[in-house]
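Notes from hallway chat w/ T.B., transcribed later so I don't forget. T.B. wanted the structure written out for a chain they're using in a teaching module, and asked if we could keep both sequence and structure tokens in one place. Agreed to drop them here.
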Amino acid sequence: MEILAFGVQADEQPLIERAFAGHFDVHCLDVFLNEDTAPIAAGHEAISTSVNADLGTPVLEVLAAGGTRMVAQRSTGFNNIDLDAAERLGLTIARVTTYSPYAVAEFAWTLAMAVNRRIVRASTRTRDFDFRLHGLLGRDLHGRTAGILGTGRIGAAFARIAHGFGMELLGWDVAENPECLALGMRYVPREELLATSDLISLHVPLLPETLHLIDAAALKSMRDDAILVNSSRGGLIDTAALVGELRAGRFTGVGLDVYEAEAGLFFFDRSLEAIEDDTLARLITFPNVLVTSHQAYYTREAVGQIVDTTVRNVLDYRAGRRSENVLVPRS
């Protein structure tokens, strides 16, 4: 059986080919799965997709009609998949439940430190041999408060780093993490966390109940000099509302590795094109905003774990086994 892998990055391809060797043939494509590319999968019983794949009803129907029976998504999030349609069509859908939490937590901290210490602006200046310090004044994070929304494996890894900086820890989640409590974290209502934290980092999944978790009201409740970091899912933040607050001169810095309308933009070279997304175009112009291209997970360790789990998911499918990674069938 040949596996067709969509949305494979050049750095990722050798890892995928090595992991599948000895199990299945694999054909890697750099195109992402959507309504236009779905017909390519015809004749492939199993395919693998990336985080920005379109697995809505129309795409799933094309896949099923072409003979696809199993989709192994190389990501943890699955908000891009119509699970009801997949079950109706008799498809098996699996994801990667866990991978290195350090990759995302460390990158979230990279964003936080970069906007706090004005690293991008400083780097741009020195490349032009401008070595002035004006406008580069940051602040110590030691002794300040880190508010962490979502304290699972990634949030806990972020908390450990914050603890190492000597920060006070506030948490918000549906359940308290004993590991975070041992660090001295105090769980508080979301409103209190937003209002009192100097640094706010998002580590919750994108679900209907978390869509625009950081909305206009939440943004207004935050301190004017707060730092906001999102390395989870773009839809957690109401970007239009964020732009409005930035226009008002608020926030020390905002670091975003994800964007709610990133599909069709992130992972592509659009440098020679006119960007039609006015919200993103405006967002990038703010000097206190740093936007990266959904790369927090992109370490050799994390990608290796993602690929290894994807191979196991396909092997489980072929053997009729079920694991915690299977989203559909649901029982």
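Follow-up for T.B.: The chain has a mean pLDDT of 97. Might be a good example for the class.
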